[in-house]
Amino acid sequence: MITTPRLRLRPLTEADTDWWVRLHADDEVNRFVGGYSREQAAARLRDIQQQWTLRGHGLCAVELTSSGEAIGRCGLNWWEQFGETEIGWTFARHHWGNGYATEAAQAVLTWGFGTLELAQITAMIHHGNTASAVVARRLGFTPLREDSVLGRACTVYALARDDFTAP
């Protein structure tokens, strides 16, 4: 469990399937990350649980500490084909513009570089996702390379532990 003054991040589990489907059902939310059927969501969440077991990290549900409402997801994802640990974030549209992505990602970076002692974390930002690119730059990420993830062009940003400034 990772906490900030406004947020609580907890590991996602298969029990979050219906919530995951609802989060990704909004066309604006899934524009860069895609939508999920219930079966696809359950399979993805099983993969996330397995990553928690095997690597000690994964994606988290982000909840408001004030109400317990799940408002998005943020966490670390290991990409075998790149040999990289990526940070990612996705939030329900009605929670955009409140600084939650930056706050959650800052907490995940502090945990990833501190507790997990990762040397570098990447952020794969699909072309056209200017809001996520702004968050990545605000956190200290800089462009590393152009690549493709899940068949879509993206800019891979990177942040080294030595360049990270904890809050």
Topology record:
Elements: E1 2-3, E2 7-11, H1 17-23, H2 38-55, E3 59-64, E4 70-79, E5 84-91, H3 100-114, E6 120-126, H4 130-138, E7 142-149, E8 152-160
Helix pairs in contact: 1-2
Organism: Streptomyces bugieae
Domain N-acetyltransferase: 7-162
Pfam family, one: Acetyltransf_3
Q: What is the CATH H-level superfamily?
A: Gcn5-related N-acetyltransferase (GNAT)
Mean pLDDT: 94
Q: Give the radius of gyration.
A: 15 Å
Query: How many domains comprise the coordinates?
Result: 1
Helix content: 25-40%
Largest sheet strand order = 1-2-3-4-5
Pfam families: Acetyltransf_3
Protein name: GNAT family N-acetyltransferase
Domain N-acetyltransferase: 7-162
Organism: Streptomyces bugieae
What's the quick description here?
The chain has 167 residues and is of the alpha+beta class.
How is this structure best described in words?
The chain has 167 residues and is α+β, with helices and mostly antiparallel strands. The protein has one domain (2-163): 3-Layer(aba) Sandwich (Aminopeptidase), CATH 3.40.630. The protein contains 4 helices and 8 strands. The protein has helices at 17-23, 38-55, 100-114, 130-138, and strands spanning 2-3, 7-11, 59-64, 70-79, 84-91, 120-126, 142-149, 152-160. The strands form 2 sheets. It has a 5-stranded antiparallel β-sheet with strand order 1-2-3-4-5. Strands 6-8-7 form a 3-stranded antiparallel β-sheet. The model has no long low-confidence stretch (mean pLDDT 94).
List keywords for this structure.
single chain; 167 residues; alpha+beta; Aminopeptidase; 5-stranded antiparallel beta sheet; 3-stranded antiparallel beta sheet; 4 helices; 8 strands; 29% helix
